[in-house]
C-alpha cells in the first residue's frame, strides 16, 4: 500500500514510517522540519520505498506536489505541545486546524481509501470523572485541545458529507526514545544533569502510553473498518508527577531535588483514559506498566554523552 505520513519525521511519525517500510509499504513522508530533525530518518533515508517531501501542511500547494497513488493517510503533523500552542497561537491554529483541513481536502481529491487522524486527550479538557470515556464532554481547556477538537469536527464532516473513511484516535501522553520538550525527556535530562525537577502544581494525574504501543495501534488500523467514533489510546493507568519523578530518580541514580511551582492554568490536571472501547476494537495489548520504557530511555541518554 502507498501511505502518506504527514509529520513522518516527527517523534511518532518516524516510528510509524520505519514500521511501514519494514512491512513492505511504500511511504511518502511530508514534514516541514519545524520540530523534527532531518536526521530522524537517516537510517532509512535511502530506502527504495521511501520518499521524503519537505512541505508545510498549512500550504495546500505543498500537498499538490505529492506523488499520485496514495491510498492511505496518517495525519500526524501538528503543533503537538500545549505550551507551544500558547506561545505560538497562530502557528498552532494554522497548522492544526487549517493544515488538517488541507489534508482532508487532499484525501478527498485524491480518492484516498482511509484517513487516520491523531487527535489528543486534550480535546476533553479537564476531566469531570476518571477514567475518561469517549462520551465525556469535549470541553477543551487550551488552544492545543481546541485545535485538535476542530480537526475532529472537520474529520466528521468529511466522513458524513463526502464519505471519506476516517479513523480518529485520541492519544494520551505518548512517550519514548527520541521524544523531546515534554515532561519525561525533560525530567530525564535534568535528573542526569543533577538539576531540579520542576513540577507545576503537583496535582497532575497523567496517562502515559509508550510510542511502541501507539505504533502497533496505527499499524492495526490498516486492517480495520473505519470507526465513526473517536477511540481513546492510552494505558488506562494514571501516574502522578511525583511518582514519575521518583521513578526517574531511582532508575537514574540521581539525587536531583524536586521543585514545586504554581500550576500553569492552561494545563489539564487529571486524565486517565477509559479503554473499554479500545479493547473492543483492537487486538493490541496495553502495557501493565505504563512507564516500562523509562529504563531504556535513561540508558540511551547516559550513552549519548549529552549529560
TrEMBL record:
Pfam families, sorted: Epimerase
Cross-referenced InterPro entries: Epimerase_deHydtase, NAD(P)-bd_dom_sf
Residue stretches making up the NAD-dependent epimerase/dehydratase domain: 3-234
Similarity comment text for this entry: Belongs to the NAD(P)-dependent epimerase/dehydratase family.
Protein name: NAD-dependent epimerase/dehydratase family protein
Organism per entry: Caldithrix abyssi
